[in-house]
Amino acid sequence: xxxxxxxxxxxxxxxxxxxxxxxxxxxxxxxxxxxxxxxxxxxxxxxxxxxxxxxxxxxxxxxxxxxxxxxxxxxxxxxxxxxxxxxxxxxxxxxxxxxxxxxxxxxxxxxxxxxxxxxxxxxxxxxxxxxxxxxxxxxxxxxxxxxxxxxxxxxxxxxxxxxxxxxxxxxxxxxxxxxxxxxxxxxxxxxxxxxxxxxxxxxxxxxxxxxxxxxxxxxxxxxxxxxxxxxxxxxxxxxxxxxxxxxxxxxxxxxxxxxxxxxxxxxxxxxxxxxxxxxxxxxxxxxxxxxxxxxxxxxxxxxxxxxxxxxxxx
Length: 314
Ligand SMILES: C[S@@+](CC[C@H](N)C(=O)[O-])C[C@H]1O[C@@H](n2cnc3c(N)ncnc32)[C@H](O)[C@@H]1O
Ligand code: SF4
Ligand code: SF4
Ligand code: SF4
Fold this sequence. Notes:
33% of the residues lie in helices and 21% in strands. By secondary structure, it is of the alpha/beta class. It has 2 domains: 246 residues, TIM Barrel; 61 residues, 2-Layer Sandwich (Alpha-Beta Plaits), CATH 3.30.70.20. The strands form 3 sheets. A 9-stranded mixed beta sheet has the order 7-1-2-8-9-10-11-12-13. Strands 3-6 form a two-stranded antiparallel sheet. Helix 10 links the parallel strand 11 and strand 12. The chain binds S-adenosylmethionine and iron/sulfur cluster (3 copies). S-adenosylmethionine (SAM) binds next to strand 9 and strand 11. One of its GO terms (molecular function) is 4 iron, 4 sulfur cluster binding. Pfam families: Fer4_12, Radical_SAM.
C-alpha cells in the first residue's frame, strides 16, 4: 500500500485521548476505534462495542427545561421525542447515529455521536502534535477500542503511516481477530498489550459472548513470531469471573513458556457505568464491586509462576 493510499484511508474513531501513561510505555496518545467482537459484561467502553456510530444522551447536560429545542429541529428522522414533562427520549429504532445534525446543534454537549469517520492523515496529525513528548518518554501511539484490529485495513494503515512518521506504536487487543490481521499488524508494532481474560472457554464465553480458542491460539503464534518483541499480557480482574488464585495461576501457566511475555492484572472498576445510561443500556454489573484486598494475593499467585515478569498496574 502506498503512503498516499494509507493517508486517505478512513475508519470509525470514537475518541482520541492524549497524555495517557497507562496503555504502553511512556506518554502516549490513544486512538479508540469502533467495533468489538466481544461483549464483556464489565466493559468500561460500552460505546466502543457496536461497529456503527451511536448517539449518547446525557440528560444532566440537557437544557430542555430552558426550552431548548435545537436537537428536535435538527433531527430529520424524528428520533428525538420530547415527553409531556419536558424530558427528552431517543427513539433508538429511528436513530441511525448520523454523524452530524443533533449533536452539532446541541449547545451543551448533551448529545454526542460516538464514531466519527476520520482519515489516517487526519488522526495522525493529532497524534503528531505530541511527538516531542514521545521522544523524551519512549511513548507513542496506542490503538485501542473496542477491538482496533477489527477495522483491519484502517488499523494497518494507521500503524504503517505512524511508523513512516517515526512514531512508536502499540495496540491493545482482545485477540479475537483473524491471525492474518494480527500477523500483518505485528510488523508495524513496537509493543502489544494482549488480554487473556480466562483459560476456561465456557466461562469465557458466558461473560464475553465468545469462546477463547482463537484468542489463545493467536497469542501463542504472536509470542513465537518475534521473540524479541515484548508482549504485555493483561487480565482484567473481575469479581465472580476470574478473581481467584486458581484462575490467575491457570493464565500464568499458559504464559510461562514465552520469555518475551510480561503480565499485568487490572482491578475491576466501574468507570464506564454512566456511559451505559447515556446509551439507554443497563450496566450488566451495576451492583458489583471488587474487594481490592484480593489483588496482592493474585499478584503473589501470578509471581509464583512468572516471578518478576509480573508487573503491578500503575
Ligand atoms: C477498553 S479495553 C480495549 C482493548 C480490548 N478491547 C480488550 O479488552 O483487550 C482496554 C483494557 O481495559 C480493560 N477493561 C475493560 N473494562 C474494564 C473494567 N471494567 N475494569 C478493569 N479493566 C477493564 C480490558 O480488559 C483491557 O485490558
Ligand atoms: S443521531 Fe441523527 S438520527 Fe439520531 S437523533 Fe441525532 S439527528 Fe436524529
Ligand atoms: S440541543 Fe442539547 S440542550 Fe438542547 S434540548 Fe437537545 S439535548 Fe438538550
Ligand atoms: S474486548 Fe474490550 S472493548 Fe470489547 S467488550 Fe471486552 S472489554 Fe469491551
